């Protein structure tokens, strides 16, 4: 990594320009992952992989690398790197809820209780062991309901279990909570205990959640893009509350479902967001679906606002989040969790195409090539959802909208047709002619 002593390539020779853009030399990238993102970077014309410690313009690094290096590294004007320094404020389950509760309270104080209702999208949650006693009070007020226990910092469904009776967590308490009394043992792992959504929306009797991709290119001002394509992940086994110990019924993670005894790897257990939106629209009508999906926009913006003042904003950093959203039987979306490293490994051909397009379009948004005007509202499959305020849709961008009233339609098209290649061709032609004039 450059420490500020070398002159970066873009300042040498002809490629120089006032914005510190790379100009006419190749773009040098590094990548910590061996999956779709590497294929995308390798396939990008004019981009060159940097071996070892060479200077880079773009780094798709892993979170550990960033933690170890961020505080001591110097970044040139044009360099871009994945992840913000303290992304965990949103992606660790306990911290996400803490930040959301705080913004909810502040909103209620400043704008009234009614405004606070717009935060009713995350299930009641407590951190354990620190909030164990408050949890027990809440537990006693709601006898018979189901709770879900999740390790705060783990992923892929690991360590999760459901329970109905306090005595069901006695074993967990013995293992995780009591060690505090033994000074030689590690501090207990932080968990969250959360109200289980007992009435998920079912398709074919199965539960699913939806992976939604969100790109933040700046926290201050907040600038957010929403990708139109994603997928719903179904559980392999019909939903029932009779067997709460059966993870194949209750956890929709692919990492869990692929181990189910009757899992079919060819069929998988995914639907595209386009398939899902079409299905829901046919069943409930376009307007009902638009209302439900507006709830997803609200989840995205409120959750990002809840950490806006905490995240160390750095113009070199960006983040691509994977949001996990669960619909209940009333089609109300709930936020389950937010991932800063959503899986980019493809589970099949369709999944590969989705992820390849997603990542290629992400690089188009970041525009290290300086091919765009910076005023675009749609780039490939990404739609600009928020830039210091909500973005409204343009006339030519009205998919999934019944009566085409552009003044009130947000620029949000999750699950709508994603003709990204055609759109990009037109976009680049338009940007070129704007730049010429
Ligand atoms: P992980 O990070 O381990 O994937 P999640 O919080 O995403 O943990 O939970 C894993 C799965 O468990 C989710 O994809 C969802 O299917 C299910 N789940 C989690 N929380 C709830 C909840 N409160 N109500 C219903 N289902 C839930």
Secondary-structure blueprint of this entry?
Layout: E1 27-31, H1 36-42, E2 47-49, E3 58-60, H2 63-69, E4 80-82, H3 88-91, H4 93-111, H5 113-116, E5 125-128, H6 132-141, E6 147-151, E7 161-163, H7 170-177, E8 191-195, E9 202-203, E10 206-219, E11 222-227, E12 231-234, H8 247-250, H9 254-257, E13 270-272, H10 273-284, H11 286-306, E14 317-327, E15 333-339, H12 349-366, E16 378-379, E17 382-387, H13 420-436
Helix pairs in contact: 1-12, 4-11, 10-11
The protein binds adenosine-5'-diphosphate.
Adenosine-5'-diphosphate binds near residues 123, 150, 194, 251 and 336.
Would you mind describing this structure in some detail?
There is one protein chain. With 437 residues, the chain is an alpha+beta fold. Helices cover 31% and strands 20% of the residues. The chain has helices at residues 36-42, 63-69, 88-91, 93-111, 113-116, 132-141, 170-177, 247-250, 254-257, 273-284, 286-306, 349-366, 420-436; strands at residues 27-31, 47-49, 58-60, 80-82, 125-128, 147-151, 161-163, 191-195, 202-203, 206-219, 222-227, 231-234, 270-272, 317-327, 333-339, 378-379, 382-387. The strands form 2 sheets. Strands 1, 2, 3, 4, 9, 10, 11, 12, 13, 14, 15, 16 and 17 form a 13-stranded mixed sheet that branches. It has a 4-stranded antiparallel sheet with strand order 5-8-6-7, sandwiched between helices. Residues 123, 148, 150, 154-158, 160, 194, 196-197, 209, 251-253, 324, 326, 336-337 line the site of adenosine-5'-diphosphate.
């Amino acid at each position: 990594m450059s420490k500020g002593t070398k002159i970066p390539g873009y300042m040498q020779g002809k490629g120089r320009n006032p914005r510190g853009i790379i100009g006419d030399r190749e773009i040098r990238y590094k990548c910590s992952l061996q999956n779709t993102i590497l294929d995308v970077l390798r396939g990008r014309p004019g981009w060159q992989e940097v071996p070892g410690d060479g200077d880079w313009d773009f780094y798709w690094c892993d979170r550990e690398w960033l933690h170890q290096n961020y505080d001591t590294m110097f970044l040139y004007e044009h360099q871009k790197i994945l992840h913000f320094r303290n992304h965990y404020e949103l992606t660790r389950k306990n911290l996400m809820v803490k930040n959301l509760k705080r913004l909810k309270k502040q909103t209620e104080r400043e704008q009234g209780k009614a405004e606070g209702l717009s935060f009713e999208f995350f299930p009641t949650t407590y951190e354990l062991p620190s909030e164990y006693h408050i949890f027990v009070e809440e537990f006693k007020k709601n006898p018979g309901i189901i709770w879900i226990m999740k390790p705060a910092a783990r992923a892929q469904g690991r360590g999760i279990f459901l329970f109905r009776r306090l005595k069901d967590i006695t074993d967990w308490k013995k293992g995780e909570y009591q060690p505090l009394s033994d000074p030689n043992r590690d501090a207990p792992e932080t968990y969250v205990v959360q109200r289980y959504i007992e009435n998920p929306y079912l398709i074919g009797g199965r539960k699913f959640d939806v992976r939604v991709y969100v790109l933040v290119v700046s926290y201050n001002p907040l600038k957010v893009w929403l990708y139109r394509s994603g997928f719903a992940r179904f559980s392999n086994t019909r939903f029932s509350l009779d067997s709460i110990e059966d993870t194949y019924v209750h956890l929709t993670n692919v990492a869990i479902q692929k181990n189910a005894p009757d899992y079919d790897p060819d069929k998988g257990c995914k639907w595209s967001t386009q398939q899902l939106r079409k299905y829901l629209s046919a069943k409930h009508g376009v307007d009902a679906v638009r209302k439900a999906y507006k709830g997803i926009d609200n989840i995205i913006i409120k959750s990002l606002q809840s950490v806006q003042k905490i995240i160390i904003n750095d113009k070199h950093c960006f983040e691509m989040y994977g949001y996990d959203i669960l619909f209940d039987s009333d089609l109300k979306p709930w936020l389950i969790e937010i991932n800063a490293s959503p899986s980019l490994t493809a589970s099949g051909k369709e999944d590969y195409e989705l992820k390849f397009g997603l990542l290629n379009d992400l690089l188009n948004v970041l525009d290290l090539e300086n091919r765009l005007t910076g005023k675009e509202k749609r780039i490939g499959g990404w739609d600009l959802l928020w830039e210091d305020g909500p973005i409204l849709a343009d006339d030519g961008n009205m998919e999934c909208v019944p009566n085409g009233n552009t003044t009130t339609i947000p620029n949000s098209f999750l699950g709508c047709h994603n003709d990204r290649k055609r759109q990009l061709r037109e976009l680049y032609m338009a940007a070129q002619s704007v730049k010429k004039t």
